[in-house]
Amino acid sequence: MEISSFVLFWAAIFTSNILLTNFLGMCSYLSVSKEVESSFGLGMAVFFVLTATSALNWIVYHKILVPAGLVYLQFIVFIIVIAAFVQLLELIIERYAPALYYTLGIFLPLITVNCAIFGVSLFLVIRNYSFGQSVAFGAGSGIGWLLAILMLAGIRKRMKEKLVPLGLQGAGIALIITGIMALAFIGFSGIVNVQ
Amino acid sequence: MISRIFIDIAVACGISTFLALVLVIAQRYLADYGICKVTINKKKEVSVQGGISLLGALSDQQIFLPSACGGRGSCGTCKCQLTSGGGPVLPTEKPFLSAKELGDGIRLSCQVKVKGDIEIQIEESIFNIRRYRTKVIDIVDYTYDIKGITFQLIDPQRIDFKAGQYVQLESQPYGKVKQKAVRAYSISSKPQDNGLIQLIIRLVPEGICTTWVHNHLKVGDEVFLTGPYGDFYIRDTEADMIFVAGGSGKAPIKSMLEYLQVVGTKRKMTYFFGARTCKDLYLTDEMKAFEKVFPDFKYEPVVSQPCPEEGWEGKLGYIMPYFPEAIRDPKNTEAYLCGSPGMLAAVQKALVELGVPQAKIYFDSFG
Amino acid sequence: MKLTPSEEQIMARMQPGVITLNGFLGFDTRNLNEIIADDEKVLEMLGISAEELAERMQYFSDKTFESYDLPVLIDEIYEVETNIVRGKLPCPFRHPGIYRKTITTLTNRKQQITVRWTALSIHTIKEHHFFEGKGSPFRLDPQILKKALLD
């Protein structure tokens, strides 16, 4: 059954949130979620890059790799495309939005190695999405990731004043919170199935 | 089979090359800001290569704004007024700027990137500031932690400064220190010796620059100095003068007295030097000698904690109680102070209580 | 746990020769978050907050400011003096403002303990719960600090 781009966009945010159902992009999610401000910065950067690279990688895959019979090179090519795009984005932001560059800038290079970005590019190949679906899925996943990291940052901010058992402080409690958040998101999963 | 491998490699390389090319082109057009125009005080125009910081662009043009951290945005001394251009205020600048300064367009020049034409306002005296290549010709130990270092100017060969101003010294990387450091020190030699600069530098615990000066600097070494800076200098009036110094604060006062020795003066002058122990006293004979040079000058070293074995017979305790006997007419007295903030606060309070007008108290606080 | 880029920058500024000669970390091999977390655990055990300690330190430093170079005896127990030397330091956490190089030395006569701190130490303890790494010249062990300031 063909899913419309619009449905896929919302599904990527709620029912199959890239972070909370696939647990992709955990590394920066755990380490940057201590402050709401910086997690918003990183989340926005992930959103931009995800939307753009899912479009780019769709073009590269379907217009270059498939006709040339080079599908097995997809991993390496996707990574190169993502890295190059992040570089380009960094240049553009530095030139035209220096204030944004300073809040976002340090997180941009980090995104190159964020597995959520790579994961989305692979999903759109495996699930055989059309171009429109790919962009919608990329944008939705970006917003979903932003939403998840903002929620965790908000919770962690409140957690600072609470007593956490010694062994669970830091990453331990963050993972437990993420697990509970993921359980809550399962509540949405009956609405649409994107697999 | 072989041709298949070649095609694969060619396609992979082609994609990479294309992306690299896009990046190179982007870099060429996005990161190149061309030649930008900086207009200073609405009359002087300089052309600078875009993309670098305003502080760096100006220093390339031999205009040196004061800067103590070397452009890292951590000292806040390179403030400068931008009347047009410069882009939005960055988060790295905000901590150093008051609401009024933000309103006046004051920015940290090391954080402002020149990306277009800019108009700035700076003080005229900044045009006199140069970067000097110098050679150390003499190092003397004044006390266990204070050294006097004399530099010979090599390029440019002459400096024009007022007695009491300061210069900035660049230390080179050494030991664990990987970066240059820039720190300010008062000039202790007289302005008439314009081919030389003497600095009096006290070793600061954990200090990056003073440790370099004390433990690594040798006669013959090349050192860069930038200056002169500061508005601590003798006002040309006929008023009586009180000098107060503590620690290495003796430097600017020494420069002032040597300057007055050359130009001559009949003003009544008293110089109080506050030291903790007798070990902290230095240049005492040289300062006493000024009593014979000037018609009305007195040097008063005061020691607050003399050790019994030192046998100190001079003035004891704090310097403030000795002020009344040095002041003839408080309204007609100027005070020149250089020392630690705690001492300056106490001395200022005492002087104002004695009737010396606040406007006539000039000081060089340890900045 | 990994450090964020801004935390890595903070650690870079704490290295020797960047802000101070010997840096803020001493020979400590723990990272910034671990140093802070470990000291916070000790504070919790002692039942005192970093803010309370910092306020107490500020109180002693303020008391000595007026007497600019003689030691002051406070409450018959604390012998305190403050030395101010040339220069100012920025906060390695990039907080607003710059801090004078003041060094306050306090001797608790009853406990026979001497501790010393700078204006910057008060700030890093109050705002960042950072007591510096082991082996740093201005490391303040919370346990010793509490004993010196409050007992």
Structure report:
The complex is a heterotrimer of chains A (about 200), B (about 375) and C (about 150). With about 200 residues, chain A is an all-alpha fold. Chain A contains nine helices and no strands. Chain A is globular, with a radius of gyration of 17 Å. Chain A starts with a helix and ends in a 9-residue tail after the last helix. Chain B has seven helices and 17 strands. Chain B folds into three domains: about 35-125, Roll (Ubiquitin-like (UB roll)), CATH 3.10.20.30; about 130-230, Translation factors (Elongation Factor Tu (Ef-tu), domain 3), CATH 2.40.30.10; about 240-365, 3-Layer(aba) Sandwich (Rossmann fold), CATH 3.40.50.80. The mean pLDDT of chain B is about 85. In chain B, about 25% of the residues lie in helices and about 30% in strands. Chain C is α+β, with helices and mostly antiparallel strands and about 150 residues long. Chain C has one domain (about 5-150). Helices cover about 40% and strands about 20% of the residues of chain C. Chain C contains five helices and four strands. Chain C has helices spanning about 5-15, 30-45, 50-65, 120-130, 140-150; strands at about 70-75, 80-90, 100-110, 115-120. In chain C, strands 1-2-3-4 form a four-stranded antiparallel β-sheet. In chain C, a hairpin with a 7-residue loop joins strand 2 (about 80-90) and strand 3 (about 100-110). Chain C starts with a helix and ends with a helix. The chains are: A mainly alpha (about 200), B alpha/beta (about 375), C alpha+beta (about 150).
Question: SSE layout and pairings?
Answer:
The complex is a heterotrimer of chains A (195), B (367) and C (151).
Chain A: H1 5-13, H2 26-31, H3 36-68, H4 74-96, H5 98-104, H6 108-111, H7 115-126, H8 131-159, H9 171-186
Helix pairs in contact in A: 1-8, 3-4, 3-7, 3-8, 4-5, 4-7, 7-8, 8-9
Chain B: H1 2-30, E1 35-40, E2 44-49, H2 54-60, E3 79-84, H3 99-103, E4 106-108, E5 118-121, E6 130-141, E7 146-155, E8 166-171, E9 181-186, E10 196-202, H4 208-215, E11 222-229, E12 240-246, H5 250-263, E13 269-275, H6 284-293, E14 297-303, E15 315-316, E16 333-339, H7 341-353, E17 361-365
Parallel strand pairs in B: 1-5, 12-13, 12-16, 13-14, 14-15, 16-17
Antiparallel strand pairs in B: 1-2, 3-4, 3-5, 6-7, 6-11, 7-10, 8-9, 8-11
Chain C: H1 5-13, H2 32-46, H3 50-65, E1 72-74, E2 78-90, E3 98-108, E4 113-118, H4 119-128, H5 142-150
Antiparallel strand pairs in C: 1-2, 2-3, 3-4
Helix pairs in contact in C: 3-4, 3-5
